[in-house]
Amino acid sequence: MATRHRGRAEGYIYDHGEEFEIDVSYRQDDGRLSKFVVGLFFKVRRSRTMIARFDNEHGFIHMDLLDARGRLKAKVPFATVSLRDAFQHAKKYFEDNAVLLKEQFDRWS
Predict the structure, then answer these.
(1) Closest Cα to residue 19, out of 108, 103, 92, 109?
(2) More exposed terminus of the chain, fewer Cβ within 10 Å: N or C?
(3) Please, are residues 82 and 34 in contact by the beta-carbon 8 Å criterion?
(4) Is 16 left (phi over 0), alpha (psi -120 to 50) or beta?
(5) Which are the contacts of 29, defined by CB distance < 8 A and separation ≥ 6?
(6) CA 92 vs CA 22, 63, 69, 84, 103: distances in Å
(7) Backbone angles phi, psi at 20, to 5 degrees
(8) In Å, how far are 39, 54, 65, 92, 93 from 99, measured between CA atoms?
(9) Residues 6+ apart with CB under 8 A from 58
(10) Which of 57, 56, 76, 58 is nearest to 66 (CA)?
(11) In 3-state terms, what secondary structure has residue 7?
């Protein structure tokens, strides 16, 4: 049986410097955060490529690191006290580490 969601999905994108965007999507059910995806994108002209993402799919919070073809290169589990804390940490982590994550992405590509 499919899971029904009473909440609604929301999201936004914000620039992080000239080269990066952080794409935030989340769902709240009954006023509580239930799912999220925070993606870090590298911008080149009019295109953008996802470098990494935090999410809570598969029943646990983790960060996926990707290569230029969008293939998963590493899945890093993330333990936290709450889903909301992980959601906030994901945005801050990408703000603080965008350049380092791009360097790793370049090595894999």
Answers:
(1) 103
(2) N
(3) no
(4) beta
(5) 5, 6, 7
(6) 10, 13, 25, 13, 18
(7) -125, 150
(8) 14, 16, 13, 13, 11
(9) none
(10) 76
(11) coil
Going by the DSSP 8-state scheme, the letter that residue 5 receives in this structure is: -
Query: Cα 105 vs. chain centroid, distance in angstroms?
Result: 15
**Chain-centre distance of CA 34, in angstroms?**
15
**Taking 80 as the threshold, does the pLDDT of residue 2 lie above it?**
no
Q: Show the tokens assigned to 93.
A: 């982590």
pLDDT digits (tens, 9 = 90+) for 44-80: 888 999 999 999 988 899 999 999 999 999 999 988 7
Nearest to 33 by CA among 65, 60, 8, 3: 8
| 3 or 37, greater pLDDT | 37
DSSP 74-107: EEEE---S-HHHHHHHHHHHHHHHHHHHHHHHHH
